[in-house]
Amino acid sequence: MAALALSATACSSDLSTAAPTTTVAPATTAPAPTTTTTMAPQMFDIVGTALSASVFTELAGLVVDAGLVDTLRGPGPFTVFAPTDDAFAKLPVDALHKVEADPKLLATVLTYHVVPGTLKLADLKPGKLTTVAGIDLEVTRDGDKVFINGKQIAAGDVMATNGVIHVMNDVLLPPS
To answer: Judging by beta carbons within 10 Å of its beta carbon (0-12, 13-18, 19+), is residue 154 exposed, middle or buried?
Structure first.
């Protein structure tokens, strides 16, 4: 552009009145605007969500042993009161082995932690809930605290694509 301006001035017949017709704006070196793209957290089904939490390895292994993976990966929706690894560690070893050795009992204990539908903490009202095992759980509340069979929900409303998980620090045992 500057070269064109100079050549236009040089070609003018009256050098004293000729002025450049083009000016060059100063170059700017402002940095390009930066953008940050945040991805929404990926949601998994109940099994994938439990596995990604890394505190349900015992539960996940028992679900595999009981043949319930496909069920809990199904469309649901389900509400799962999921005992942590620490919850299983509280159980007497002989009782845990007895449950693991009996596939029917194992399936009953595990499905005793599952209720049809998506029930967030706010939806859990005092009273009975019928589990997938066909045995009732008792819901009680004390202010914002929610209890299942007298055991407090440690953390709630962990959403999955096919339901919700509530973290339990205790294993729920069906009545004998």
So the answer is: middle
The label of the residue with tokens 């929706």 reads: 77
Beta bridge pairs of residue 168: 83, 153
Buried-state track 105-122, b at ≥16 Cβ within 10 A, e below 16:
ebbbbbbbbbbeebbeee
Q: How far apart are CA 39 and CA 55, in angstroms?
A: 24
Any idea which fold 50-168 has?
FAS1 domain (2.30.180)
With 0-12 CB in 10 A as exposed, 13-18 as middle and 19+ as buried, what is 1? exposed
User: What is the chain's mean pLDDT, rounded?
Assistant: 81
Task: Give Cβ neighbours of residue 100 (< 8 Å, ≥ 6 apart).
Answer: 62, 65, 106
Instruction: Identify the H or E element spanning 154.
Output: strand 151-160
Q: pTM for this structure?
A: 0.75
What are the two backbone dihedrals, phi and then psi, of residue 72, each rounded to the nearest 5 degrees? -75, -10
pLDDT at 111: 94
